[in-house]
Amino acid sequence: MAKRPVVRGRPAVRRPRRGAPAGVGTHSTRIVVSRVVLVLALVIAGARLVQVQGVEAATWSEKAEQQRTTVINVQALRGAITDRNNTQLAFSAETRQLTINPDWLREDWKKSPKDYQALDLGKDYDEYTQRMAAYIRQLLGSGLNETDLLNRIRASGKYQVLVRNADPSKSAQIVKRYRSITQEARQQRIYPDGTVASNLIGFANWRDDQKPPGVHGLVGLENAWDDQLKGTDGSRVVDTASGNDGLELPGTTRDIETAVPGSGLQLTIDADVQYQAQQMLDNYKNVSGAQDGSMVVMDKATGEIYALAVTNSFDPNNTENVPLSAMGNPAVSNPFEPGSVNKIVTAAGAVEYGIAQPDTVVDVKSQFKMADRTVTDAWSHGDVQMTLAGIIGKSSNIGTLEMAQKIGPDRFVDLLTKFGLGQKTGVGLPGESAGVVPPRSQWSGSTFANLPIGQGLTMTLLQMTGMYQAIANDGLRVPPRIVKAERRPDGSVVTPPKPDPVRVVSPQTAKTVRDMMRAVMQKDPEDINQNGTGYPGALAGYQVSGKTGTAQQIDPNSGAYSNSLYWITFAGVLPADNPRLVVGIMLDKPKYTSGPAESRSAAPLFHQMASYLVQHFSIPMSATDAPIQKLQLP
């Protein structure tokens, strides 16, 4: 039998047994399995695609939009505050805040140091950061600390503030030179006259904790008028790059809402008068040894305030170490017992109700007993005869109480109300106090022995000055004003509504009292008994009406009236024969028992201020000197 030829190089093919499954464990099996898995994956992906594009399309579209668009707030420029002559007292300037991401800077240097070296910004990281700090300081001014800047640049973390209020043009140069520095739009509130009127204006600063961040008023008129001053912010929508840097993409700005600037605020004060009042008050405080003091200069006809000064004013440009308690306005928030300046109520009542005239003679005893109180005068005397002008001019407690008894408590309380005591003036300054007048129903037997001589009730200096404004203005009290006008961004000028005046006494009574108060300022070269208590405040060539006051304070240790702690007050009308201005002064705790003469009277301070005011306002001299009035009979 012949043999089958053998084919070398190719193995024989084994055929599967009949009935055995073909391809098990072979490559063809893996292909089948792969196709099944692929089909299942496509089915799942298709289902997910349907869900995303159909059911969840709106949700994913919104998320995508949020990721690539950013709403940028554009803060409105805050309105300026000016005095009555449009001298700027506060205004805002656009600035830039420079920030850096130190971590990003270090990482970027490591990745591409040649980029920096090519720009000749430093051969290594240390030199680069040193040059950066030096350049920023050189460009923005020597007020910056180069070491502090360098420490911030090299700090750890993703956010460091380098400069808070940089000039926008110089800031742009820095950002262009250093890609790791970014800038944010800000505003800086500037007070060009520093401490002048700071107790009125208060201050505003940038607040990052507000939404949106911006300049907000913290105290004073900046706070009270914040809504009008800050204006209405605008906005714009931009696209930003993905990632943590959030860089704005050029050419994507849209949906612009223009910011509306804030209203300007014009005050009634005169910046020059305010400055002089503060300077004179601070100097007098130092001479008298007083703890503090305040002064008001007011227009007699309109109630407009030309100056409202307090001692120790703060600089709103630099408030870092100034506590909020030092930013108040004691002239409207801190009431005090006025002392003898309150005797104007008795003088006005005695004339208004026909009880006495300036030359009416009154028997003034050496002491006066009322209920459980025995009252004496500031100087020792026996039983004397004094005119009503003398009772006011020499400030007799006893004579005042004798007149007050004839007026009666009910009519006296009515006069206190008409003079504006026990109620806020409505001037519009934050923190105003109404003072305290004991309700008639709560009076004890000795209450009426205190009130007429200015003890047992409290008032603010603004209220006290307002009392004398009524007498200067022929008996018509006009509540004081500090805001003259609001100047809106559309050019319109809105004047705050004027409060209704209050008739206190008749015009004739007011003139009689005003003329009688000239006796306070007189000095008789021939008879010291005819000298008033305020003659050091007299002004040559001008008739002046005034009233001095001294009030004991409560000793915090004993709870009784102190013999060493006093409030010293003065109120004056200038000129008396043709009133134009009213001045009120208060000194708190001067060295009354051990200090110089200035510690026992505020009349010399009035003289200083009055001398300035007649020049500043070009007030003509009085046609005649005030006649010498008879105060005490021989």
From TrEMBL:
GO cellular component: plasma membrane
Domain Penicillin-binding protein transpeptidase span(s) in chain numbering: 293-608
InterPro entries listed in its UniProt record: Beta-lactam/transpept, Beta-lactam/transpept-like, PBP_dimer, PBP_dimer_sf, PCN-bd_Tpept
Keywords for the protein's UniProt record, in alphabetical order: Membrane
Subcellular location: Membrane
One function term, GO molecular function aspect: penicillin binding
Gene Ontology BP terms: cell wall organization
Domain Penicillin-binding protein dimerisation: 74-244
UniProt xrefs under Pfam families: PBP_dimer, Transpeptidase
Gene3D superfamilies: 3.30.450.330, DD-peptidase/beta-lactamase superfamily (3.40.710.10), Penicillin-binding protein 2a (Domain 2) (3.90.1310.10)
Record-linked SUPFAM superfamilies: beta-lactamase/transpeptidase-like (SSF56601), Penicillin binding protein dimerisation domain (SSF56519)
Calcium among keywords: no
Region (Disordered) residue spans: 1-25, 487-509
Compositional bias of kind Basic residues: 1-18
Sequence similarity: Belongs to the transpeptidase family.
Name used for this protein in its record: Peptidoglycan glycosyltransferase
Species annotation: Kutzneria albida DSM 43870
